[in-house]
Amino acid sequence: MAILLSLVLPAGFVQAQPFPSKPVRIVVPFPAGGPTDIVARAMAQKMSEGLGQTVLVENRAGAGGALGSEAVAKSPADGHTVLMGTIGGLAVAMSLLPNRGYDTLRDFAPITQAVNVTNILVTHPSVPARSVKELLALARSQPGKLNYASSGNGTVTHLAGELLKLMGGVDIVHVPYKGGAPALTALIGGETDMSYENALLIVPQIKAGKARALAVTGARRSPLLPELPTISETLPGYSASGWYGLVAPAATPKDALMKLNAAAVKALRTPDVMERLSSQGAEPVGSSPDEWAAFIRSEIDKWGKVVKAARMKPD
Fold first, then answer.
1. 226 Cα distance to chain centroid
2. pLDDT, tens digit, 9 for 90 and up, residues 248-303
3. Alpha-helical segments (H) within the chain
4. CA distance 180 to 205
5. Total structural domains in the chain?
6. Is the dihedral of CA 182, 158, 215, 240 positive or negative?
């Protein structure tokens, strides 16, 4: 009997271990140093404190966020591997990437929306346009000459550019990069004319005179740069804001999801995390799983229509 118990108990004990029983990984589907990475790392330490386990950030870049998203979708559904999903990987990929290897609504369990992010239309200082109106006039006078950098095909920076082209009736060439950091480097270096940069990255460059801010892409002016107009003030109805949030593999136990939600929301409401993110143009959210699920569904529908209208194609 003693021998039998010694064989049976360890296995039963492992199964009964409460979540989390080991470090938790937040997979960021973009390179280190980009805006998604900044948000994940700002949350990770505080989540570690809330969960009582180390929370690590792992960068798995590629395919506009779809590569890392697919990796998490196929990970063990035990709560120890989660994704910092983005508008590109979770919403746009559903209509843009038919061979993405996952379905957002089928393969992921929502945890919480982390932030809404202010994006800013910026140009290299050499571009002779100081407003959206002047930029559109310049683009119309030189079809196909101007180009814009994005952080990858299907990302919000790509969508923002295609929406401007559709609504403004202009021809501006899309130049995709593998993440926000390399796209920013290209803009600052003069390799590209313009971009729709994340405020987390671009505000210091604007202040240093290395980029010229024309407008914000959201529906409202940003508290970070209140003097900067919205694109919609020139093109009524224009809106292209970014967002990030946590999801886990679909079969993850509800208990683990709720513990992750509680730790993430608590982290987002910690004063130093709120200040760090807000000062760089990211608005902390911290929604419930149900609220987050409804928001994702609405974004899939909205951007699916843009992908179709712009005739966007995968790389």
1. 23
2. 999 999 999 999 999 999 999 999 999 988 877 788 999 999 999 999 999 999 89
3. 2-16, 35-51, 66-73, 93-96, 104-107, 132-141, 156-168, 180-188, 199-207, 254-268, 271-278, 289-310
4. 14
5. 2
6. negative
Q: Which domain holds residue 277?
A: 23-116+242-310
Q: Computed from CA positions of residues 91, 93, 98, 104, in that sequence, does the dihedral angle turn out positive or negative?
A: negative
CA gap 290, 69 in Å, rounded? 20
Write out pLDDT tens, residues 28-59.
998 898 888 999 999 999 999 999 999 999 99
Contact (Cβ atoms closer than 8 angstroms) between residue 171 and residue 144: yes
From residue 171, how far is each of 146, 300, 312 by CA, in Å? 8, 25, 14
Same domain, 128 and 216: yes
296/113 Cα distance (integer angstroms): 9
- 7 domain-assigned: no
Nearest-Å Rg of the Cα atoms of the chain is: 21
Length in residues, the chain: 315
In DSSP terms, 122 is beta-bridged to 195, 213
Q: Does residue 246 belong to any structural domain of this protein?
A: yes
CATH label of the domain that carries residue 62: 3.40.190.150
3-state secondary structure 27-96: EECCCCCCHHHHHHHHHHHHHHHHHCCCEEEEECCCHHHHHHHHHHHCCCCCCCEEEEEEHHHHHHHHHH
Q: How far is CA 279 from CA 118, 179, 211, 222, 275, in A?
A: 11, 22, 19, 11, 6
In terms of Cα–Cα distance, which of 92, 73, 95 is closest to 82? 73
CA 237 to chain centre: 22
Distance CA 212, CA 123 (A): 5
pTM beyond 0.90: no
